[in-house]
């Protein structure tokens, strides 16, 4: 079954990336107060994590949640991996600046407490923390009947790095190689559109040709790219990107360069399935999902071999150019 002439988009499903960016700018524009004295903020907003002065180090903070992947967990009655997603979406945002995550606090909001759900969420948080080698040092649980329906999980991560080791993309130059590292699947972004496609044209218990049900596929936990710190310790890295909501457009956060993806990674089967049944345009897929590439290194040619030594499944996917924008096989994927 296909979209029957109806071209599905992320915006039509309920998430307008352009509006979201404008709304965030409206909020950030009001945040004018900055602490003075010790532990003052460093730099502005717009990168993957905020920095705080801490002597010879920067402290970094990132915050994120699981999003509507929680609704898939509810349908499948399996909350055991949701905590991994929550940890991953935070620590991966620290890794892109070469920051080591050290501590995490979670926030769980629900309409009604369930011991079983809380235990399963905790299992996932613990496993995610193990993969990232950090400690969940606390959290908050709120019962918000009438305000929240079901369960929502989010968290905040604290990281640290020496000031001279921070990577922000400032050293990126034309000719640098873009090296992609595969995702584990859909991760924790684009689920609003993915759920619409499943609800419209299939079922969560539908077994796919590759051996999992759609529900199991959408619940595959987000990959945690802890090996990043080994790469940056061993070779020169000019920039990194976590491919989350907004897909390849996340690359624009690294600077006004041309990001030419000429040889993209092969997406997992879930992505062409969604594209086919929903009649989703290719550019829309790459603006919404990670399309099989969850993390990107931007490095000089001589560093590629080191990236591949740490991440054996990584490979070059393109180059940096002087023509600003994000291009897939020569075509811009930015919204018109």
Automatic annotation (TrEMBL):
Keywords attached to this entry: ATP-binding, Cytoplasm, Developmental protein, Ligase, Nucleotide-binding, Purine biosynthesis
Residue span(s) of domain PurM-like C-terminal: 174-328
Organism domain of life: Archaea
Catalytic reactions on record: 2-formamido-N(1)-(5-O-phospho-beta-D-ribosyl)acetamidine + ATP = 5-amino-1-(5-phospho-beta-D-ribosyl)imidazole + ADP + phosphate + H(+)
Pathway: Purine metabolism; IMP biosynthesis via de novo pathway; 5-amino-1-(5-phospho-D-ribosyl)imidazole from N(2)-formyl-N(1)-(5-phospho-D-ribosyl)glycinamide: step 2/2
InterPro entries: Homeobox_Antennapedia_CS, PurM-like_C_dom, PurM-like_C_sf, PurM-like_N, PurM-like_N_sf, PurM_cligase
Ligase as UniProt keyword: yes
Protein location: Cytoplasm
Gene Ontology MF: a single term: phosphoribosylformylglycinamidine cyclo-ligase activity
One GO BP annotation of this record: 'de novo' IMP biosynthetic process
Name this polypeptide is given: Phosphoribosylformylglycinamidine cyclo-ligase
Organism (species): Methanogenium organophilum
Top-level taxonomy: Archaea, Methanobacteriati, Methanobacteriota, Stenosarchaea group, Methanomicrobia
Gene name of this polypeptide: purM
